[in-house]
Amino acid sequence: MDQSYHKPVMADTVVDLFRPIPDGIIVDATYGGGGHASRIAEDLGRDVLGIDRDPDAEGALRGNFRDLARILEEQGIDRIAGILFDLGVSSHQLDQPERGFSFRKPGPLDMRMGPDAATEAGTLVNTLSERALADLIRRYGEERFARRIAAAIVAHRPVADTTELAEIVKAAIPAATRRSGGHPARRTFQALRIAVNEEMEALREGLDAGLSALEPGGRCVVISYHSLEDRIVKRRFAEGAQGCTCPPDLPVCGCGRTAELRILTRKSLTADPDEVAQNPRARSARLRAVEKVAA
Fold first, then answer.
1. C-alpha 189: how far from its chain's center?
2. pLDDT by residue (tens digit) across 231-264?
3. Which residue has the higher pLDDT, 121 or 244?
4. SS3 helix, strand, coil % of the chain, rounded to 5?
């Protein structure tokens, strides 16, 4: 495992969820430093295919998990026994100022998780209209002061680097609000990162491809770190677990719909206090899992 990446979050739970699955390959769609993959391989003796769009993720097949169907086809893999998504930005990426993810360290307004990203954060910050920028910050950052922040950014253009952007955002937020809830720029940086990397679209496409590739009895495990991700996962799992949708008074099913998934986590699982104390990143982690029950 590459120690420069973050520690694998809720690794014991991930291993236990994959323990009963059928023989076959497990895909780690967000390989990073290989922490989860190493635990799965060592504890379960399973073959793991690691995928990551970050060129720094050594040992992984280079690719975006939104292209999972194509990647599996190119590898000659028809079915998989399990798939793991550990979403969000890694400690490794945050710790490299030149990647532009950190609002605490000076660096270029980049925020690309991989070279496949079509644009950089600086392009969005310095070219979007004030309205479009506010909409982006509100939608992907769930930031209630999005309009004030967007106006401040436009007024200070061109914005040169991450620390300048962080200071602009901080100054745009009321002082009383700045004193709680973490760094004032956190939500804005999250919004820009999500937009640059098309994370929500990639998650929807990757989930669909992963669930489609699972063989019956196979499992999908997703660890998310903010409500936008978790909402997408929860809804997709719920849709897959839904059976007949006919009115209850209809004597015979007419829709022919059967559930493709069985939900294993009725509520999202969280890290225990000991893990959070050792790995603060685990504090916001939410884990959900399903089992494939139909082709």
1. 15
2. 999 999 999 999 877 888 887 887 777 899 999 9
3. 121
4. 45, 15, 40
Place of tokens 């225990």: 272
Phi-psi region of 181 (alpha: psi -120 to 50; beta: other; left: phi over 0): left
Q: Supply the pTM of this predicted model.
A: 0.93
CA distance 149 to 155: 10
CA distance 232 to 200: 8
Going by their DSSP bridges, the two strands 61-62 and 80-86 should be labelled as unpaired
Taken in order of first residue, the domains within the chain and their CATH numbers are 11-92+199-292 (3.40.50.150), 119-197 (1.10.150.170)
What is the phi/psi pair of residue 188, to 5°? -65, -45
E strand or H helix at 222, and its extent? strand 214-224
3-state secondary structure of 50: strand
The Cα 81–Cα 102 span in angstroms is 36
Angle between helices 186-197 and 162-172 (to 10 degrees): 130
Q: What percent of the chain has pLDDT over 90?
A: 81
